[in-house]
Amino acid sequence: MNAWIDKLRSTLRRHVAVSLVAMAALATMVGYETLKPVTARAATPAPAAAALDDESVSPLLSLDRAMETLAARVTPAIVNVAVTSKTKPDLTEGQVPDDMQHFFGQFFGPGNGPRFQMQPSQPQIEHGIGSGVIISPDGYIVTNRHVVDGAVDIRVTMSNRKILDAKLIGSDPLTDLAVIKIDGTNLPSVPWGDSTVLRPGQTVLAFGNPFGFRFTVTRGIVSALNRPNPFANDPHKPGQFIQTDAAINQGNSGGPLVNARGEVVGINTFLISPSGAFSGMGFAIPTQIVRPTVETLIRDGKVTHGYIGISITDVTPENAKFFHLNDADGALISQVEADSPGGKAGLKIGDVITELDGKKISNAGQLQVEVGMKQPNTTIKLGLLRDGKDMTVPVTLEAMGSHDKSLSAENENGHGKMRWGLGLADLSSDVREQLEAPENIHGAVVEQVQPGSSADDAGLRRGDVIMQVDRHDVQSASDVQQALSKVPKGQDALVLVWSNGGNTFRVLHAPEGS
């Protein structure tokens, strides 16, 4: 009996345990199913705020669409210009490349950079890239001269990645412009715009190939106009640059700056930056200079610039009263070169040029551009103010360099022919102090170097001091001129030059035909 009771109790315990397990499982499932929606709802983020409707931002959307249309219109006419060129003869002992002088100067100060020990060598082959813009359906392309200078091979990459050979039509050292050409018909092109109607604040786009990234477009505004010539080594170079904050970097050179209508208003050419990269200040040559230069290059293959033979500066509010002027307009003559067109016409230091052929002259840069774009042998009428009196003086222009004695060392026949392309002056105590030249340095200081001349090819620059000619010491500008004039026709000349704190020998190669 007792055994039966124990068995019954055991059976009841098992059933109770199973029931408890089943109830626990059921409770777990019910809890999971009950809590699951809550957990899922907690993991789902709330809907984001609605985007602004098109109507509320329609001006911005319209601007975007306009910029897209403009970029799509211009980009097919932009080209990448790849150049293979020969460099000039390599360095001699003590010479630091020009493009490294600024770099080292930041750390060591002018003339105190490291010295190099190098031997003369043969010209080397270099490769470079720049930008250009097609301006005609038959394949004429505008770029910078410094992009194609010395080129032995020029290749153009179109926006469709097609690569074409190009030939140099002509270049102009003074304006840093060049024209190349590819074969083709019905090519995409961009029309000319009028840079004289630009105003600060207007939208402009810069196109090009910065750092090799092809077919880039950047947007900005016209920051300023009529920026002066920054090239102190050649005061003849025209200014009037367009300043823009549209990003311009290495490789953009030769690309166009276009207005909102897709017209070329400038050719991007350089930037000002302490780091060498874009820092908000890019500069373009305005079409008032570009277009006539390009048209002349296409027609003649070269450009001859008009020349007066004067140095000019802007009239300022500070000096205007000393020249009997009520406002700071005009170009102030600070120097008149002897036997120049200006000298022959009777122009004087202190004259203020206020008009050219009846057109008002606002500043020195404007006069420089206007005269440079005129042909030699043209007679112009200069309206000027001299000691408070209005005058009109006719001046017959000459070709730049043709009568500038400061740019030549005459040959032994005394014909005044441009031979070496040097303008020289005596090394006076004032000049020595400006150049920080030691007392043991004697000779003639280089004042000017004619672009493309033997002196230019040898790397001579304004401020260099010529100490020897063909291993003979020289003491003055006349000594250098006399020594160079005695070099036989067809022969090179060796000059010892003090530059940037060190001495180097340079070879002046005999010019063609002399």
How would you describe what is shown here?
By secondary structure, the protein is α+β, with helices and mostly antiparallel strands. The chain is built from ten helices and 26 strands. It has helices at 2-43, 58-74, 98-108, 145-148, 287-300, 341-345, 364-372, 429-435, 454-457, 477-485; strands spanning 78-86, 125-134, 140-144, 151-157, 163-172, 177-181, 203-208, 216-227, 241-244, 256-258, 264-271, 282-286, 306-307, 310-314, 331-336, 352-356, 359-360, 379-386, 389-396, 398-399, 422-426, 444-449, 465-469, 472-473, 493-499, 502-508. The strands form five sheets. A six-stranded antiparallel barrel has the order 1-2-3-6-5-4. A hairpin with a 5-residue loop joins β2 (125-134) and β3 (140-144). The longest helix has 42 residues, at 2-43. It is globular and about 90 Å long. The N and C termini lie far apart (145 Å). Mean pLDDT is 79; it is low at 89-121 and 403-417.
Question: Secondary-structure map with pairings?
Answer:
Elements: H1 2-43, H2 58-74, E1 78-86, H3 98-108, E2 125-134, E3 140-144, H4 145-148, E4 151-157, E5 163-172, E6 177-181, E7 203-208, E8 216-227, E9 241-244, E10 256-258, E11 264-271, E12 282-286, H5 287-300, E13 306-307, E14 310-314, E15 331-336, H6 341-345, E16 352-356, E17 359-360, H7 364-372, E18 379-386, E19 389-396, E20 398-399, E21 422-426, H8 429-435, E22 444-449, H9 454-457, E23 465-469, E24 472-473, H10 477-485, E25 493-499, E26 502-508
Antiparallel strand pairs: 1-2, 1-4, 2-3, 3-6, 4-5, 5-6, 7-8, 7-10, 8-9, 9-12, 10-11, 11-12, 13-20, 14-15, 15-16, 16-17, 16-18, 18-19, 21-22, 22-23, 23-24, 23-25, 25-26
